[in-house]
Structure formats: C-alpha cells, structure tokens
Amino acid sequence: MGPGNRPLDLEWLEDFLALAESGNFSRAAQARNIAQPAFSRHIRALEEWVGVDLFDRSAHPAALTAAGRRFQPLLEDTLARLESARIKARAAHDQAAASLLFAATHVLSLTFFPQWLGGLESQLRLGPIQTISDSFHACEDLALQRRVQFVLCHGHREVPGRLDEAEFPMLRLSDDVLLPVSAPQGAAGGAMHSLDAADAPVSVLAYSEPSGLGRIMRARMRQVFGDGTVPTLSQGVEIVFTAHHAALLKTMALEGRGVAWLPKSLIAAELKSGALVAAASAEWNVPVEIRLYRQRAEMAPAAEALWTLVQERPPGSGGR
Fold first, then answer.
1. Whole domain around residue 12: which residue ranges?
2. Which of 28, 138, 220, 247 suits 83 as a labelling partner, its CA being 20 to 30 A distant?
3. Is the peptide bond before 128 cis (omega within 30 degrees of 0)?
4. DSSP H helices in 23-165
5. Residues 279 and 185 in one domain
6. 160-178 pLDDT, tens digit each
7. What is the pLDDT of residues 230-262, one digit of tens each?
C-alpha cells in the first residue's frame, strides 16, 4: 500500500467527499452517477494510495476514521485551490488571447506610440494592451521568439534587420529623420560642436550595437563612422559617449557633450526653443521610417483587427 503504488485519480477525491457527506455507498454512488461496485473500487483505491483506511465500514452509516477526518478538510482545501487555479488559468488564457502584445523601441514608446495608439482606440476597441520598451535588438528577439505580436521601431529600406530577413510583414506608419544636433554656443546660437569645423576632431555621441538607430547610422553615415572604428570625416571624429537610448544621447547633447543624431520626433520641442541646434547642413540628415512589424502566423482576433485597421490608414495618420 502507499502512494508509490499507483497514480492518483482526482475522481476518487470527489467520490471520497460524496461518501463522507452521505455515509452510504449506494447513495454516494448514485450522487456521483457511478455504479456502486465501481464507486467502492474508487474508495478502496484511494485508501491504498493514502496507505490507511479512511472509512469505518463496520459503522452504519459508514463513518470516517481518524485518518479520514484529518484527510477531509485538507482534501476540500486542495480541491478548492485546484478549482481556483483552473479558473485563473482559463482567465489568463482568455485575457492573453484578447490582449495586444507590443514591443517598442525606447524612443518610440515615449514619442510616437501613445498618440498613435490613441488614434486607433478612437476607431477600434483594443482591450488589454501589454507593451515592452527595450532596445531594437531586444524587440527583434521578442518577435522572433513569438513573445509579442507587434514590434514598433525605426527602419531604413537600405538597412534590413532580422525581421526583414525573416520576412515578417511590415507597414510604414510614418516618417522620421535623424538630425545631427548640438547644444548652442554663446549668444549667437551656433552649434557648440559642428561637423563643419575644419581644425579639430568632432565629439560624437554614438548609438551602441543593440540600437536599431545605431545600425542605420553605421550603414548610412560611413563618412563619419567609417567601418565602425576608423573615422573618415576630414577632421576626424572622437566618439566620446555611447548608449542605445536616444533619450540618453539627447540628455548628453543638451549638456554640450557632442553631436548626436537624434530623431526629430524626440527633439521637436528642443529645436523650437533653441536648446538644441543643427550641427551640420541638411545633407547630413538621415531619413528613417517608423515601422510596425507583425507575426507571420495568424494572431488573436484583436491583433488581427488592429492590423487590418492599420493597413487601411495612410502613412502618417496618427502619431507625430
């Protein structure tokens, strides 16, 4: 006898509670809609699993033994917890099926995403939304691991990423541009750090490897970054700070630490106030797209409805 002899059947537990309540094998079997011989075998099998008798069959009606009386409240609690766990698991499944799961790069989660989402909510009931804000590389990982339905990020048609290579469907939501900017110098308002300087190396605030904007910059601005290590700008470049958060590079630029290529969507207010100024002519600007990628496989109805709505909206509607 003992629990190691055979697996436990949850039906036996319900049978135990029915017999404990009625004290009569026949009535308990009828209540459980089981033939009495089969019901009796279930009770005996449970007792073998526990390792002791749970009912005194010599008593009329059948009475719980001391072990049975100790077993009953613990069993009732266990079954209640199991039922609660089942209900919560189903609720979590239903919520996940109805949720929208986004991964967004840091800068777009702060600038574009809230307003863009608000525009969608005016046309579609979205339900629960979960958003992960991280580096571009981390957002790609989440999509490739099927942990999110959508990825919101910057992109460039000539600089494909892993989602492009894996042929994830993509929509262009809007356009943005990376502007080389610096803190101003003196009352004249010229750039403290300028790519037009002819004599000294330019201090540059650069994006790190996990950054999607950094990947675009390294591919499109080789005259500044060369092969990533050797500068080719005539007067040279000195990378003085590196981060994958555009917002952090913005803070460093405001402190006068160097030139940073920042999304216009992030620095519109600073450009207007003069807190940041252009550090070069427009030829140094890098146009980029704001993109939405989706999973290749069919998604939950709420996610599919959102994708259909976004497909119908012209690029640039909503967001900044």
1. 3-87
2. 28
3. no
4. 25-31, 36-50, 66-98, 106-110, 112-121, 136-144, 162-165
5. yes
6. 999 999 999 999 999 999 9
7. 344 545 778 899 998 999 999 999 999 999 999
- Residue 73, judged by CB atoms within 10 A of its CB (0-12, 13-18, 19+), counts as exposed
Residue 319 lies in a domain: no
Residue 184 shares a structural domain with residue 146: no
The total number of structural domains in the chain stands at 3
Residues 51 and 130 in one domain: no
Question: Which among 108, 171, 112 has a CA at the least distance from the CA of 139?
Answer: 108
Distance separating alpha carbons of residues 72 and 187, to the nearest angstrom: 84
Q: Which value, in Å, is the radius of gyration of the alpha carbons in the chain? A: 33
239/232 Cα distance (integer angstroms): 13
Residues 122 and 151 in one domain: yes
Q: Tell me, what's the pLDDT at 230?
A: 38
Per-residue pLDDT of 292-304, as tens digits, reads 999 999 988 889 9
Provide the whole-model pTM: 0.68
- Token pair of 53, please? 């008798």
- The domain boundary, picked from 87, 122, 144, lies at 87
On whether the CB atoms of residues 40 and 82 are closer than 8 A, the answer is no
CB 102 within 8 A of CB 293: no
Looking at the DSSP assignment, which residues form a beta bridge with residue 104?
Answer: 133, 152
Residues 140, 151 within the same domain: yes
64, 87, 110: which is the final residue of a domain?
87
Do residue 271 and residue 186 come from a single domain?
Answer: yes
